[in-house]
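It is worth pausing here to work through a concrete case rather than discussing structure prediction in the abstract. The textbook approach is simple: state the sequence, then state the predicted structure, then interpret. We follow exactly that order.
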Amino acid sequence: MVSAARAHGLSYLAITEHSRRLAMVRGLDPVRLAKQIDRIERLNETLTGFTVLKGIEVDILEDGTLDLPDSILQRLDLVVGAIHHRFDLPRAKQTERLLRAMDNKHFSLLAHPTGRLLDERPGYDIDLLRVIRKAKERGCFLELNAHPARLDLSDTACRMARDEGVLVCLNSDAHSTYEFDNLRLGISQARRGWLEKADVLNTRSLDALRTLLARTIGLGACV
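Step two, the predicted structure:
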């Protein structure tokens, strides 16, 4: 994955496997995640001009808590929260679920914020503007998932985030070395939503990115 990312002109890459609740994809529990963290740290010692960031895509449970404890989340560079079950909750409850998750002191980024799959299922029913404004208040970020089955955020939601002053993270959702090309689709979606370079979190240098991420994971005050 490092070699493929470099071939696409990237200088850093975040590894964000699923957490333990997604057993069908062998999601990571705290013990396995700790081992992965150690392996990434050893790998970074051997790399020149490239950095692998330590992350997780942690499930947001129905009550808004996260699938892994703070004791392991605090070792990461970023924590990506995502809903993968109970898409059918009523609008008010689904919205509160997301807001509560974003209050976690280690929460960095909301993944595929509406949960839609194109031509397969609509997004879950949420008050998206309220979620975006919560991200602004909390100082965290929203993902633009560039996978062709998702393209979530939509173009109109990207514009909403920009208007509210919330940075969007453009994510390839690459599960293999062949999927970094998804980034081109994400860039097109971002442009449709009137996003410019300054509106996208991961157009920044590694140092600038780390500074912004640190403010979301209990290492500094929220912006």
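Step three, interpretation. The beta strands are 12-15, 51-59, 78-82, 109-110, 141-145, 168-171. Residues 30-44 form the longest helix (15 residues).
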